[in-house]
Write a structure and sequence with these properties.
Number of helices: 6
Number of strands: 14
Number of domains: 2
Shape: globular
CATH class of the largest domain: Mainly Beta
Strand content: 15-25%
Low-confidence stretches: none
Order of helices and strands: HHHEEEEEHHHEEEEEEEEE
CATH superfamily of the largest domain: Glucose Permease (Domain IIA)
Largest sheet: 10 strands, antiparallel
Mean pLDDT: 91
């Protein structure tokens, strides 16, 4: 169980990390205006370097035993960007994503290669879109946001390049809301917090303050925030705000991993030593108990 009491240096790191979005904004602003400000070179450099260094500060991380939860989806899914293959799973520790995982339903109609059209496919064309998302454990809803529109998939080269460059830059400036998109965050009875991201617009079935049971529907899979195609991003954290939260490892009870089948599209080879044992790895199919 996480504790809110931390040594001074850890508390300071968490306080600095809480403002990481503002540090990157200040860094960009400094880069733009410092050349035109008549300051000694050393001061101009410090005005740019200090915000960048503060932006790189992350909350104190630790690796307790994984918290056992139920899966956030039902039926057959594929895992990717998974802590079952490597940690940090998304190659970043920011926004509580150290042990986050993405899951989707395999799209049999997906093209083998990326297209070159300007517009990607509609989110409604994907089997994951609109699928129910359920709470991994009982708790109290502390945050709900579902007003962002579902954008088209970034399944063609122009869209992917846009996502990795200008769109990615603006999402970085927007912070966790722009990256996670529509989301629900729940405080569980053991003082951990789960976040369910990229949800479908206007699909949330709960509101802040609601008490939810494990397995209760929270919303639907969508394509909002930093998402290339409809999928669910889910993570466990030690704080409610992703900016100041450290990610926590989790395990899903009752999940059956298919050892005979692997999605080549999402598989990334062998698991790294940092991987969470027993968690579905990249490209693995898993079946979560309950109706599909």
């Amino acid at each position: 169980m996480p504790s809110n009491a931390e040594p001074g240096i850890h508390a300071l790191r968490r306080a600095i990390a809480r403002w990481q979005t503002w540090w990157v904004r200040l860094f960009i602003l400094s880069v733009l205006i410092m050349p035109a400000v008549p300051l000694p070179r050393v001061w101009a450099v410090l005005c740019m370097v200090v915000p960048l260094l503060l932006f790189l500060v992350r909350p104190p991380a630790r690796r307790p035993e994984p918290v056992v939860l139920c899966a956030p989806v039902r039926g057959r899914w594929v895992a990717f960007n998974s802590p079952g293959s490597r940690v940090p799973s998304h190659r970043v520790r920011a926004h509580g994503q150290r042990y986050a995982v993405d899951v989707l339903r395999e799209d049999a109609g997906a093209p083998g290669t990326r297209g070159r059209t300007l517009l990607g496919r509609s989110p409604e064309d994907y089997p994951s879109f609109g699928t129910p998302v359920v709470a991994m454990a009982a708790g109290t809803v502390v945050h709900v946001s579902d007003h962002l529109r579902d954008h088209r998939a970034r399944d063609a080269w122009p869209g992917l390049i846009w996502m990795l460059t200008l769109e990615g830059f603006f999402r970085l400036l927007g912070g966790a809301p722009a990256i996670l998109g529509n989301r629900v965050i729940i405080r569980h009875d053991d003082s951990t917090f789960s976040a369910y991201a990229h949800l479908r617009r206007s699909s949330a079935t709960v509101r802040a303050g609601d008490r939810v049971a494990a397995g209760q529907t929270l919303g639907q899979v969508g394509n909002t925030g930093n998402s290339s195609e409809p999928h669910l991003h889910v993570q466990l954290m030690d704080r409610p705000r992703p900016e100041s939260a450290a990610g926590l490892p989790m395990q899903w009870s009752g999940v059956e991993v298919d050892p005979e089948r692997l999605s080549l599209r999402w598989a990334t080879g062998y698991a790294r030593p940092s991987a969470v044992p027993g968690f579905p790895a990249n490209g693995q199919y898993f079946d979560a108990p309950g109706p599909a």
